[in-house]
Amino acid sequence: MKMLINGEWVSSQSGEEIKKINPSTGEVLGMFPAGTKEDVDRSIDAAEDSFNSWSDMTSVERAKILYKARDLIAAKREELENLLISENGKILREARDEVNGVLDQIQYYAEFARKITGDVVEGDTSRRKIFQYKVPYGIVLALTPWNFPGAMVVRKLAPALLTGNTVILKPSSDTPFTAEWIVKKFVEAGIPKGVLNLVTGKGSEIGDYIVAHKKIALVTMTGSTATGQRIMKQASSNMAKLVLELGGKAPFIVWKDADIKNTLKTLIWAKFLNVGQSCIAAERLYIHEEIYESFMNKFVEITKKLKVGDPTISDVGPLINAGALKSAEMFTEDAKESGIKILTGGKKADISGKFKGGYFFEPTILDNVPQNSKLFQEEIFGPILGAAPVSSIEEAIEKSNDSIYGLASYLFTKDPNFIFLAAEKIRFGEVYVNMPGPESSQGYHTGFRMTGQAGEGSKYGIEEYVKLKNMYVDYSGKDLKINTIRDDIF
Ligand code: NAP
């Protein structure tokens, strides 16, 4: 693959490339450029040079390009689905769902073309007004993760571009090809040269350099909390605005009056979607003590029916890379050493044939996990879920909030008092009540604590990409009276 810098598809200036592995087979899928600091500089210069003409266009004109990109993606959606399967290891149904999300988000943001408004405010004296404009920040750096490699890319590109910013996209090194495919569609749709640039390469090698670059005005990043913290430090050198969507550790509360079938459907989705590699994945299961045993039996029974293997025909695909597989193994080893009982799963899945070398892990359920254990405190990001019984609403809320993360949470109950109390007291950006996620384009995806800053989606998310500036105007035609200056000297 190639990078896109100033409208040209180019190799890394050093000529170096990085290997990308297909997670389902363990075989090499392809090579991508290891971008250098010089590549970064060139892309940022291009984004700077194109900013004036791009931001001078109206949002309506820019939206036409977004709609066109959307149509071009829709026309070739199967290619994108196949890429999500080979590059990320998504199962077919999830790949299709993600492409639906990609199209929905571009459409949603493009529809804002006529909806971003400012204010006209009265001045302190008559015949004075303050015009409050929403203007683009300038150059946006978009750093994206691998777990939803299509949706996360467009969730940043579409609002940033619509509002007149120019963009440097640095995708995850685990999913560079999906990003390239999407960027090509934006180029085909008519994005002028320099407005959108794609730079690939290891975040650990070029990340600090791009984030700290003096010309970057806004960094929007979805990824781990550790990387988010590092970005905050680097961005102190340019005071870039930060939109950080980081880790999660969703509590999933099942009350004794819950609709069990709907709860189980949602739980299977919330835990095994993308093999648990989702920021809104269920990571802690709190069940009312009176139904704990019966619910767990059913949960285990259904989980055992999930087919693991070939993503085109299975329910659960591979983890993203060898490191993720190792991490899943360590979590279960730790659990065993702490005496936690494994009810099902607990090891690398044994897949034969073409997929033998893939990073498959068995769907795993753990019993009676203590609140202070690693399993309940650290983000697992794999197909592993621990459960614990709880006896009161207060206990369920208190334990849910006992996490450094605060993104998604789930509650299954018919008790309206619990529902409204939870909405108030569960300090998470999203509380899904009696329903699954994921977040909608018109919802504001945001989190408390170490989950980050700002958010994406909805009018609030799009407004992260515009800065409010003010023009003060006096149209009285009178002599100016300035309280602190003597008039007799003029
Ligand atoms: P990650 O390792 O933090 O990487 C995220 C992005 O940052 C990648 O493009 C990465 O590039 C880049 N990066 C790494 N080091 C950098 C540095 N020093 N400076 C600048 N950029 C740097 O996260 P991930 O493993 O891809 O994604 C998993 C995490 O994302 C999980 O914690 C998950 O909860 C979180 N997530 C959150 C949300 C949300 O909405 N809150 C959604 C999805 C995922 P390289 O790949 O080249 O290292």
TrEMBL record:
<dbReference type="GO" id="GO:0009450">
    <property type="term" value="P:gamma-aminobutyric acid catabolic process"/>
</dbReference>
<dbReference type="InterPro" id="IPR029510">
    <property type="entry name" value="Ald_DH_CS_GLU"/>
</dbReference>
<keyword id="KW-0521">NADP</keyword>
<dbReference type="InterPro" id="IPR016162">
    <property type="entry name" value="Ald_DH_N"/>
</dbReference>
<dbReference type="InterPro" id="IPR050740">
    <property type="entry name" value="Aldehyde_DH_Superfamily"/>
</dbReference>
<comment type="similarity">
    <text>Belongs to the aldehyde dehydrogenase family. Glyceraldehyde dehydrogenase subfamily.</text>
</comment>
<dbReference type="InterPro" id="IPR015590">
    <property type="entry name" value="Aldehyde_DH_dom"/>
</dbReference>
<feature type="domain" description="Aldehyde dehydrogenase">
    <location>
        <begin position="9"/>
        <end position="470"/>
    </location>
</feature>
<dbReference type="InterPro" id="IPR016163">
    <property type="entry name" value="Ald_DH_C"/>
</dbReference>
<comment type="subunit">
    <text>Homotetramer. Dimer of dimers.</text>
</comment>
<comment type="function">
    <text>NADP-dependent dehydrogenase of the nED (non-phosphorylated Entner-Doudoroff) pathway with highest activity towards glyceraldehydes (e.g. D,L-glyceraldehyde and D-glyceraldehyde), to a lesser extent towards D,L-glyceraldehyde-3-phosphate and glycolaldehyde, but no activity towards aliphatic or aromatic aldehydes.</text>
</comment>
<dbReference type="InterPro" id="IPR016161">
    <property type="entry name" value="Ald_DH/histidinol_DH"/>
</dbReference>
<dbReference type="Pfam" id="PF00171">
    <property type="entry name" value="Aldedh"/>
</dbReference>
<comment type="pathway">
    <text>Carbohydrate degradation; glycolysis.</text>
</comment>
<dbReference type="GO" id="GO:0043796">
    <property type="term" value="F:glyceraldehyde dehydrogenase (NADP+) activity"/>
</dbReference>
<protein>
    <recommendedName>
        <fullName>D-glyceraldehyde dehydrogenase (NADP(+))</fullName>
        <ecNumber>1.2.1.89</ecNumber>
    </recommendedName>
</protein>
<dbReference type="GO" id="GO:0004777">
    <property type="term" value="F:succinate-semialdehyde dehydrogenase (NAD+) activity"/>
</dbReference>
<keyword id="KW-0560">Oxidoreductase</keyword>
<feature type="active site">
    <location>
        <position position="245"/>
    </location>
</feature>
<dbReference type="InterPro" id="IPR053507">
    <property type="entry name" value="NADP-Glyceraldehyde_DH"/>
</dbReference>
<dbReference type="GO" id="GO:0042803">
    <property type="term" value="F:protein homodimerization activity"/>
</dbReference>
<dbReference type="GO" id="GO:0009255">
    <property type="term" value="P:Entner-Doudoroff pathway through 6-phosphogluconate"/>
</dbReference>
